[in-house]
Amino acid sequence: MNRTLNVVRLQLVNKQTYIWVPLLVLGGSFAISLAIYAILASSGVTDTVYGMGAQAPLWYFMVVGVQALTLTFPFSQALSVTRREFWLGTLLTAAITSAILAGVFIVGGLIEQATNGWGINGWFFVIPGISDGGVLVTGLFYFSVAMLIFVIGFWSATIYKRFGSLWLTVVLVGIGLLLVLMLWYIGSLQAWGQVFAWIGHQGTVGMSLWGLLLAAVLAATSYLTLRRATP
Fold it and tell me: Do 148 and 214 meet the contact criterion of CB atoms below 8 Å apart?
């Protein structure tokens, strides 16, 4: 356990990757969104405005997942850290930083609600249908999204380390084709109504848990690949 925690410390040596850059991306996106809201308000727009800029730091977590392996894994092997310890420590680091990001979204949403959209009816952190479930549901949603995106990046990096860029490209293209085939199959059955009904039935909590399950599956397969990857 101590060696796993040492991997967490190793990952957080570069706080820029895990903490400062995500917060900078979030802060920059927030500032730009507020400026747009203010411009709309000064132009006489009184309608409620929802921005999508809050997703920017979440997508950056994919880059964090890639860098967690490509930048730190070779160094960890030089320190005689086992691959299992590196894998566990990296996922624990991702969970900690995802929880921090979810906390920032929760606090931002509470301030947003208290000020009625920062006084200009502009909403950045609050998303209808997600924030309606309360603080815990909102936190679970953002935590699961951040973890899933991180693991996707980490999983992709393990394939790159083990098989190279060619096979990573083949795998990603193959997944894309499978998704298109699935969309075509649903459309051919005219089953989009049932699909959307199922998603609505799951709710925010259900979809968050499905996201965590997918993250767990990808994390498990990334460990199997990591066992044979070269530093």
Answer: yes
Q: 11, 160, 163: which is closest to 85 by C-alpha?
A: 11
Residues of the chain with pLDDT under 70: 1, 231
Cα–Cα dist 133/83, whole Å: 39
Element (H, E) at 123: strand 122-123
Q: What was the pLDDT predicted at 90?
A: 93
Nearest CA-CA partner of 149 in 77, 90, 212: 212
Q: Which residues fall within 8 angstroms of residue 84, CB to CB, at 6 or more apart? A: 223
Number of neighbours of residue 186 by Cβ within 10 angstroms: 13
- pLDDT at position 208 is 94
Cβ neighbours of residue 21 closer than 8 Å, sequence gap 6 or more: 60
Angle in degrees, CA 161, 209, 67, rounded to 5: 25
Within 8 A by CB and 6+ apart from 18, the residues are: 11, 12, 64, 93, 97
Local structure of 36: helix, strand or coil:
helix
Token representation of residue 138? 């909102």
Full 3-state SS string of 61-86: HHHHHHHHHHCCHHHHHHCCCCHHHH
DSSP state of 128: T
